[in-house]
Amino acid sequence: MRCIDQLNGVVCFRHIVWLRIALTSFLAPMFIASSVLSAAEAPVPSVVVSLVSTQDVTPQVSHVGRVEAVAKVEILARVEGILEERSFREGSVVQKGDLLFRLETENYRLIVDQKKAELAGAQASLKNAQADLTRKQSLRKKKAISQADLDSAEAAEASAQANVLLAAAALKRAELDLSYTEIHSPITGQISRSRFSVGNLVNEQSGALATVTGIDPIYVTIALSEKLLIDARRQGLDLENPPVAPFLTLSDGSKFDQPGRFDYLSPEVSLTTDTMTARAVFPNPDRILIPGQFVTVSVRQKAPVSAILVPQVAVQKDQKGFFVLVIGEDSKAQVRYVTPGDQVETNWVIKDGLVEGERIIVQGIQKVRPNMPVNAVVGE
């Protein structure tokens, strides 16, 4: 009975082994198929891509510049008188020739009238002297008078001519003084506050009545390193047609929309700063630029330069060199070796290896392997 039990035990064990083998052989293909199915249904990684494009990489350097007025004129009184009228609004833009101040004129008109009368008297004396000279010349021919009488008549006529010239000059001076009672703006610009009010007595020693500042066009000056200009001087500086042009960025970060041009370079290096002053002139019709303010001056080469730029984060490096991951038409990642050039802010110039329009991965690179399909999303 024990042997039977043992035999039965052996039989039962053998049945269990064969049963496991049978089950394994039957279920193995199902497990393999399930694993393959799971791998096939694994989610495709999403990556952010950037389109390769050609961009402007024209060389430029930036400097801090200061805005300066093209002209600044102090308005002075050239004659003495009571200020009777102020014809401008303080802080406004005045045009060349606009009336700014008017002084009392009555006294100067009287002087003009007086000088006119003196001129008329001198002209009358001249006429009389000329007539007397003509008579004496005729008498001298007849030997009716002496040569001394004729010489005296000639001297009187010359003196009368001189008196006419003096009277005419005095009249012009009086008329000029009368014109100075009206003070006009010599330039177009923005006028300051008036330093004198109506009713004040002003003269040549009173100082500036107001100041007119020319702001269109306007200057911007920058200090350039002497070393920076060595190559430029070797090639020859041509201010009539310089190879570079200045562009402005304002203090709020916005770009000034008016183009400028260089018109002056100092002839010597400053002994204290080891720099040379360069000056550019800009149109300023909207009065955006104000004398004294600071701006950023970008000096750019006039001839534009274009190149392929890619973000630095897209460029990787291995033992073979620099590479990027390019998304092909089959939506798979491909390794593409490239030749990087200069750095432009957060981008790299790519000299060789990419063409415009290709898609490169810029985010999610760590999730991708070569020839792996990806879900590409174009970044902003």
Automatic annotation (TrEMBL):
Residue span, Multidrug resistance protein MdtA-like C-terminal permuted SH3 domain: 307-367
Signal peptide residues on this chain, from the entry's feature table: none
Coiled-coil residues: 112-156
Its membrane topology: Lipid-anchor
Protein name, per record: RND superfamily HAE1 family efflux transporter membrane fusion subunit
Domain Multidrug resistance protein MdtA-like beta-barrel: 217-300
Ranges of residues in domain Multidrug resistance protein MdtA-like alpha-helical hairpin: 113-181
Compartments where found: Cell inner membrane
InterPro entries xrefs: MdtA-like_b-barrel (IPR058626), MdtA-like_BSH (IPR058625), MdtA-like_C (IPR058627), MdtA-like_HH (IPR058624), RND_pump_MFP (IPR006143)
An example Gene Ontology biological process: response to antibiotic
Keywords: Coiled coil
Record SUPFAM superfamilies: HlyD-like secretion proteins
UniProt keyword Coiled coil, yes or no: yes
Annotated GO MF terms: transmembrane transporter activity
Xref: PANTHER family: ACRA/E-RELATED COMPONENT OF DRUG EFFLUX TRANSPORTER, MULTIDRUG EFFLUX PUMP SUBUNIT ACRA-RELATED
Assigned protein family: Belongs to the membrane fusion protein (MFP) (TC 8.A.1) family.
Cellular component terms (Gene Ontology): plasma membrane
Multidrug resistance protein MdtA-like barrel-sandwich hybrid domain location: 72-205
